[in-house]
Every structure is written in C-alpha cells, then in structure tokens.
C-alpha cells in the first residue's frame, strides 16, 4: 500500500489526482482543476499538432516514419490521462478495498507476505520509472546538444504561425514540446505501475489465501468460511480491475505494436555507434517493457490462481470432516476457471499475447532490417552462407547439450526400465511394443530425410565445386586461397566431414528427445490400462496408479529441464534458417538440382521443429485424456474411498503435462504454426516487392475490415435452428444439392433433378477449370493473375462445398432426424420458448448473411453489365476452347455462363455455411436447454438427473458428428480464404477509393472474411457455452441435495473440463483465436506504390 502512495504522488504531479488535503478547500480544488486542464492542454495540443503534420506530409515516407512513433506514444498518454480522470472513483474504491476485511492481514505470517509483495511492487515501480527516465533524458540531452543549438524543434509539428519565429516564440514552443514529452512519460509511469501494482496485490491476496487454507482444521471451521469468502472477493476484485482498465490496455497494446515497428525502422537508418541509436534503443525498450509488464503480471495472476487448488492438497485432507472436504472440492472446482484478464474480450493478458505482439512486430519491422542486411553490398554471399552456418551452429549446441547432460540422459533411460514404468502383463507389453515400433519408424524416417539432404549436398558439391577446385562453403581460412592441392583436399574433406557429423548429431539428439516424449505417451497409455483394472478387491492397483501418475509427471519435468535450452536454440535458429533458405529459393530455378537440394534442406529444418511440437502436443493431449479414462471404470460400484482418491487424481490431470521451453513458449502445434507464419512473413517481407510503407497501410486496412466483420457478426450472437428455416431448404433445392421430398416418389422427377444437379455442377466446375487454365497460361502476367485468382478461389471453394453436400446428404438427414428425438426435443413450455428464441435469431442471421452475399453478387453483376457487356468483354478472364473473336451469339452464351456460375457459386456458399452455422447454434440451444433442466434437479426428481447426464453426453456426440462431417470443407475454407483476401487487398491498391470497383471489392472481401469469422464465432460460442455448464451446476441448491446426486454432479462437472472444441483436421481449432491467426498473414501482399492519402481516406471511409 505504501507503493500506491508513491504512485499517487506521481499522478498528482501529472494533474490526474488531486491530493486529499486539497479537497477541503474550494480555492485549492479550483487551482488543481485549472492545473489539470493545463496539463491536458499541453499533452493534447502536442499530439494534435503532430497528427496534423503527419497528415499534411503523408506523401513523404521518410518524415512519416520519423514522426509517427513519437506521436503514438504521446497519443497513448492522452488516453491514459483520460482514463485516470474518468476512473478516479473506481481507483479510490479499489485502493480502499485492499485495506478492508477479508483482504487485511490477520497475523504476522500474512504481514510478512504483504511486506514481501510490497518490496516487489516498489522494485517494479522504481525500475520502470528509471527506464522511462533514461529514455526521456536521452531525448532531452540529445535535443539540447543538436536541435537547440541549431534553433530546430525536437519534433516536427504543424504550427499555427510561420517557421521563421522570433527567439521568444521558439523557446516557448521548444519548452512546450519538452514539457509535453516529460508529462506524457510521467503519465505512462503512473498508470502502468498503478495497474501492475493492482495485479501484484491480487497475487499477494492469493498467497495470503493459500496460507489461510493450510490453517483449516475441524476445530477452526470459521477459517473455511473466511477462505471461501476471500476467494470470491479476489475474483470480484480482479473483475473490477479488468473492467476499469481494459480499454486503456487495449490502446496500449495497439499503439505499442505500431510504435516499436516504426522505431525499428528508424534504427535501420542510423549508425549503431551514434547517440541517436542509443536514444532509440532506450525508447523502444520502454515501449516493449510497457507491454511486457502488463503481460507478465497478468500471466502471474493466472498462474497463481491456478495454484490455489494445489495448495489445498497440502492441507491434511484425510483428517478433515466430510463437510469440509466437500466444500474444498467445490472450491477446487472453482479454481479450474482461473483469473484471466481479457482485454476488450479480444485477447488475454499473458505471455502468449506478448509473444504474439513480438511476432507481429518482428514480421512487420525486424524482417525489414534483415531484408536490408540481406540486400547489402554482397547480399548473395550473406544469404548463401548464413543458412548453413546456422545449422552447423545448432549442431555445436546440441553436441554440448549431449555431453553436459550425459548422466541425466542415462538416468532417464534407466528410470524407464524400473518400477512403476516397467510393464507388468501381456497387455502392457503389447502397448510398449506398439510405441517402440512408432519410435523406430520415427527414427528411421527422420534419419532417411537428413541422409537424403546431406547426400544431395555432397553429390552436388562433388559434381560442381570439387571439379573447379572450389570449397563447398565459403569460409575464412588462415592461409591463402591459392593453396596446394593437398591443402585444398584436406580443407574440402574437413567441410564435408563437419557437415556429415553435424547431421548425425542432429539426428541423434532430435530422435532421442522425440523417443523420450513417445515413451511418456506410452507410460500414460499403460497408466490408463491400469486404471481400468481398479476394483474394490484390488486396491493395490489404485496405489500403483497414483504413484505411476506422479512418476510420469516427474519424468516429463526432468526431460523438459534437461533439453529446454537445446530446444530453444533449435527453434530460434530453425526460424532464421528457413527464412534464409526461402530467400535462396527465390534465386534459383525450380528445375535445377540446386532447387532440389534447398528443398530437402528446408524440409529437414522444418521437420526438426515439427517433430518437437507434434510429440510435445501429443504428450499434452494424452495427459488430458487420463481423466476421461477414469470415466470408463465402473465408478458406481467402487467404494467411496476409491472414488475420492480418483477424484483427487482427476483434479491433478486438469493441469496437463506441457513442455514450456525456457519458460517462454509451449512445445505444441500452436508454436509450430506461429513459427511457420513468422517464416513466411519474413521471407515475403525480405524480397524486393515488400519494402515500402504499404505493409503498414494494408495492416490498417485489414484491421478495419476485420472490425467491420466483427461489428456485423456481433449482432448475431446466438442464431438459428436449421430445422425450421424453410428459406435455407429452398436454397439447397436451387443449388441442385437437395431434392425436394415430394419429388422422391416420382422416378421422372428424381431423374430430372439428378440431371439438374449435374448441370449445376458442370456450370460451377467448368468456370473454375477455365479460370485455373487461364491463370496457368498467363502466369507470366502478374497483373492479370492477381485480378483473376481471388475470384477463382471463391469458385473453387463452392465446388468443394457442393461436393460436401452431395456426399454427406444422408448423414445430414440423420443429424436433422436426431434433433427431433428425445433427449433433444423440448419437454415443456420453457424449453419451447428457448427453441422459439433460437428460431427467430436463426431467421435473422440467415437473412443478414444472404443480404450481404447478394449485395456482393449484385455489385459484380451490375458493374459487369454497365462496363464489360457494353464493350463485349467477359466478366472474368478465363481460358476458352475457341477464338476470342467469337460471334455475338457465342459471346452472350459464354457471358451468361459466367454470371450464372458465379450466382450459383454464391448460393452454394450461403447454403452450406448456413447449414453448418445452424448445426453449431443448435448445439448452443441444446446446452441452454440442458442448463434449464439442471436447475430442476431435486432429491424427489431424480429422473431429471439421469436425463441431464444422457442429454449432456448426446450433445458431445452430436458436436463430434458435425465436425467430423464438415472438417475438410472448413479446412479448405480457412486455407483458401487467407489467400483470397490477400489478393483482394492487393486489388484495392490498384483502384480508386471512390470508384464502383472499390465498393465491389470491399463487399466481396467482407463476404469472404464474414464466412471465416462466422465459423470461428459460433465455434468459440459453443466452447464458451459448454464451459458454462459447470457454473450452472454451481448455482443449483447444493446443500439440500443428497450425497449421491452431489457426486454425480461432480463427475458431470469434471466432464465439462474438456469443453466442446471444433478442431479441423486435428490442426486448427474453430474459434476466435484461429480467426486472428488467419488475419495475421493477410497484410503480406506484394508492394505497389500508391498515394498514402488515398488509402487513409479509404480506411476512414470504411
């Protein structure tokens, strides 16, 4: 609390916090209010003048990057000051709350905990203030010795008077700029440390709560009540902090990302030995530290809140009464939903978000610096050498890791041959054999790939370099290049031998780590087999399972600790290596042996990272499945003691085995995807086509369009039941994908409809095929290709969607029939009203989506009629099997074919998208009905409990059937949409923002983005809804229920720990995180110089 006083003093200096002693005097209040207005005017006027200057000089890209990074920092300071003034009362309430019960310390132990966290807070505040002070002082000092002596202002700004100002006016303006920067920095320090201090106080309260939990006993039941109330208050306090500062943190994240990007660009323009360079480094460190502090303490709060459950295990549970155990179990269940600070309902405040920000910064700016370095005077030599150097460099680290950790590796291998890891029966031996085969196959495949790569290098070197007496790799030598043949042969052999041995080291360590991970999966499978053998007569198996479970976790922790540094170096170097390899691929022909060599090399590097991520991900999934394997045991026939032990063991599995590399990023498929995205972005940005300011402009444009889609789809939070949506069935009929039921009885009607289906399929597929051939024939003309390909992608997806509808017709009928049966069918008026509510939303959602796509199709068709048709040009460029100078009759037929295929393709999009959305929202509807049924559970109404359990299981099965049926179609949609929007954005740079063409493309891109967003939105909604089931169970009257019902509900709550997540092809979850991931690569498109003001006007217009 003492630290808060220091922060409030800084806030008082900034004009954001009137001292308490001044509140009693009217004149002092008036003076301070005037001072607040003065500070606000100083900062806001500086930001406004900089913004006007940026707009007036937008065409000057060099000045643009010089000015905007400071402007963004000042602008955020304005937002922070506004936030402090508006939220003053909330901040006061939060501060007062921390001094009240139950937050107040009760004994010396809790006081010591408070003092410890106060020291951390004080250190954090002083360190951050020192860093910001250094940054400001470097600006001031450098300005005084350079700008001031030349009578130049520190920052370029628009001034309401002539530049040839008098000395007095210059000094006043100069002082105004310096004062604005200093006050802005102080506001940054004040609010950032205030928020971090609140987060630290939450961690402190959690630590105090953990201390209180250890004091619970049968004689001190009042402590249990205090702990429950304290736990609830901590969650409520965290919610208030999040609600108070969420907008400020969002603005900070957005501005800091852009600011650091422009700062990095500035660093490429100045010498590394200059004072300007040091100034920029301090400034960038300050901006990154702002984001990092928020993420670090937000992440710390989340981890601390998860640890509460594990602290309960330290209490003497066995000696506590049954009532206390039950209360602790319910409290433990609450901790499975930890405190997570979600900024503007968009992204969590944790280290993953910080890593995402740094990846984005790297992709937008650091890649430019690499590109500049690569395109230096001798760029070919640099890029040719460095990718092999990095691979050799990693092999050195791997060899060092193997030598240093030799004893640890031996201990790990010996451990796997000892009890409880050793197989005990034939079933476990079969499991071990199965995983041994997988491990052997993995080793042989990986070794073959590396061997092929090395062989390609050696073979190509022998038939090219060796014959010309050239070394395989360029390297510095301690002797003259014109060496004797003996020296050359020795040097050549040294290089070849080094590459071969390094490749063997890569194979050895990579397969060793992967095999250890496979063995962890094997041990988990053996544990699951043992769990199924637990009975009341074989209690020793339960003890063995508990010990085995603990040993598996300990073994995994040892593996992670042993190899974490080697894996980190592998990730870091592989990213850079593949970047340079991709760059090399742009310099060689695709039909040369050099190209094949590079492809093998890149495949090997990517495989290295992928194997780590895949098996790390597999271990995490396997460790999560242990709890669900317990459900397969005959729980109802087991004794209460065994049930309680299994419950505690299940609770342990809620924290799965996750390999965290250097405490920075998890070893899973998400990390691999992030690395892959970074590689592709860096490669694209390093090429000559991606250098100017277009990337930043396109990023802003893409963000605007995403925001449009969010605004549109947010209106349809919960929408639609398919079954009663007659308009959707009509669209299926029109598309030739769904024969009307009345036509099924007549042979001739069935034949006619089948012929119509073939006709529709021919129309859509023939347009896609002709466009594909046209693109391939005109591949040399990049302008034509970019015009054609984005429409071709949309038509291609419609072909896949039609195929999906035809293939899965019977399964769709079965799903629809299932929804009309028990337990899905509403059983009373309340459930019917829920169904009707979803019906209304369904109809609205379908109509809105159809309207959006119809507007896009209409804009294309009408624009084509008033432009192409009058000039006798086709709407889309495509290959035709006849001469372009066709007769009028043939032209009209071809033109009509393209328009009709385009319209039917759009109808197919509407039909299948609305079908999938309908199924997803029906899952939400069923969850809502289930929640209503749960509230009716009583001791007298036990059949409702059985119905709820069956209904819950049926909902999960239904969701699995939906995703299994459409996962390939959704995957194609995601994959192609990314490329489509890239080409669409590129098209926008070639048209005027006030033209019909621009409106047409904007509508088209909104449709494409809306498709993906709706999938992600409803997938995310289902995930959230399925997690809320456990919270509904909390709200029922637990106290009056019998023990049997409580236990059953506890198991049901445990099932909800694994929510319904739609994972496409086991790679991509269908949620908002995936939508953000898809939108990241969108700005990476080829450069085309254009007027910055026109794009800014486009963004503002959007």
Q: What would your notes on this structure say?
A:
The chain is built from 30 helices and six strands. With 1102 residues, the protein is mainly alpha-helical. A hairpin with a 3-residue loop joins strand 1 (342-343) and strand 2 (347-348). The longest helix has 47 residues, at 167-213. Residues 361-380, 678-728 and 1081-1102 have low confidence and may be disordered. It folds into three domains: 2-359, no CATH class; 379-683, no CATH class; 695-1086, no CATH class. The strands form three sheets. It has a two-stranded antiparallel ribbon with strand order 1-2. A two-stranded antiparallel ribbon has the order 3-4. Strands 5-6 form a two-stranded antiparallel ribbon. The radius of gyration is 33 Å and the shape is globular. One of its GO terms (cellular component) is plasma membrane. It is a multi-pass membrane protein. The chain crosses the membrane at residues 68-86, 128-148, 168-191, 245-265, 277-297, 386-404, 446-466, 486-509, 563-583, 595-615, 657-681, 701-723, 753-777, 789-807, 848-869, 889-912, 968-989, 1001-1021, 1060-1084. Keywords: Cell membrane, Membrane, Olfaction, Receptor, Sensory transduction, Transducer, Transmembrane, Transmembrane helix. One of its GO terms (molecular function) is olfactory receptor activity.
